[in-house]
Amino acid sequence: MPRIARPIFSALLLVFVCLAAGSQARVGAEVYRDRAAFNANAQNLRTIDFEDQSPTSSYPFPGPVIDGVVFESLFGASYVAASMNSGSKVFVANGVGEITQLRAFLPPGTTAVACDQFTRSMLIRISSGESVMISASDSSSFVGFTSDAPITDITFLVDFPEPTEAIVIDNLIFGQRRAGNEPPAPLLLTTSNTGRAVALDSVTKTSEPFNVVSTLNFSADQRTRLTLFLVGVKLTAQDLPNVVVRAEDSQHRIFNLPVEGASMVQNIGWMAQVTVRLTDDLSGAGDVALSVSLNGATSNKAKVNIKPPAN
Questions:
Q1: Spatial distance between the Cα atoms of 214 and 201, rounded to a whole number of angstroms
Q2: Would you say 222 and 213 are in contact if contact means Cβ atoms under 8 Å apart?
Q3: What are the structural domain ranges in the chain?
Q4: CB atoms closer than 10 angstroms to residue 230
């Protein structure tokens, strides 16, 4: 199964950060102080517990990256450290002077987020505006939110007393809001500036437009394979029979694309990928709208461009 090379990973990650920073949901969210209640209303949860997850890369802006989640600290460095209380690792963001602030940019499609914190009083706020003020004396150190609309980021803030203390959090948890007994629908990733599908040639790692026939691959049939990226679902090779990918052309004809691979993306625990083969009847189709279904739950549609055959 093809994996995303580090330059591709970096490019995709910056797309996700721009998507999160440029979209602010303004709808009501549910707030939880009890983890069991949050778990009952969320699904497909992934936890960053910081025990064995150190920053995999860092940019001058916004900051460290852990499991594909970007952490932005207002002042000073953010890092993983051993807690003096328990000996376990926690995330620490240092502050200078009047304010300490940490912001985590959440994966696209996140509609549930929660965290544990230890010894600090702080304000916790999500992108839709809901916030909770917690203190070290609270009976619960857990805070969670669920929303019908995407939650793009979560912010932790300390502004008293001066100089402000460091922010300490543990177990950043994110996933999707539970809607009854319905399984989570996959979200097909798109670029933030065009809304088109994030799709790559599975061998060359190049983006659209694509040729149906290509000599730059490892298959005897010389047909191009595309890798598509999803969030909101967890995929293994055992899920392959349950994944359906369709392409719809400008005449509204539907084509089923052979699905040849399904897995999670290496180094990003919340992102899945599927590999599909382009079929001859798509040659020269121009823009086609792709969708991915898993166990009957269907994703959004996003376009890619298929070029005419080379002369």
A1: 10
A2: yes
A3: 29-177, 187-306
A4: 27
DSSP for 47-107, written as a single string = EE-SSS---SEE-SSS-EEETTEEEEESSS-EEEEE-TTTSSEEEEE--BTTBEEEEEEPP
Domain 29-177: top CATH class: mainly beta
Q: What's the CATH number of domain 187-306, 3.30.365.10, 3.40.50.280, 2.60.120.330, 2.60.40.10?
A: 2.60.40.10
What pTM was estimated for this model as a whole? 0.83
Q: Are 186 and 292 spatial neighbours (Cβ–Cβ below 8 Å)?
A: yes
* Angstrom distances, CA of residue 275 to CA of 118, 218, 242, 292: 42, 14, 14, 11
Q: Are strands 57-58 and 64-66 parallel, antiparallel or unpaired?
A: antiparallel
Angle 206-218-201 from CA coordinates, rounded to 5°: 15
* Residuewise pLDDT in 10s, the chain (311 residues): 333 444 444 445 444 444 443 333 345 799 999 999 999 999 999 999 887 766 665 554 557 888 889 888 876 667 777 765 556 788 888 877 788 999 999 999 999 999 987 667 899 999 999 999 988 778 888 999 999 999 999 999 998 888 888 888 889 999 999 987 777 789 999 998 899 999 999 999 999 999 999 888 778 899 999 999 999 999 999 999 999 999 999 999 999 999 999 999 988 889 999 999 999 999 999 999 999 999 989 999 999 999 988 76
How far is Cα 299 from Cα 291, in angstroms, rounded to an integer? Answer: 6
Give CA–CA dist 106/36, Å, rounded.
Answer: 22
Closest CA to 89 of 109, 66, 110: 66
Q: Which long-range contacts (CB under 8 A, 24 or more apart) does 131-136 make?
A: 132/31, 132/33
Report the distance separating Cα 67 and Cα 72, nearest Å. 14
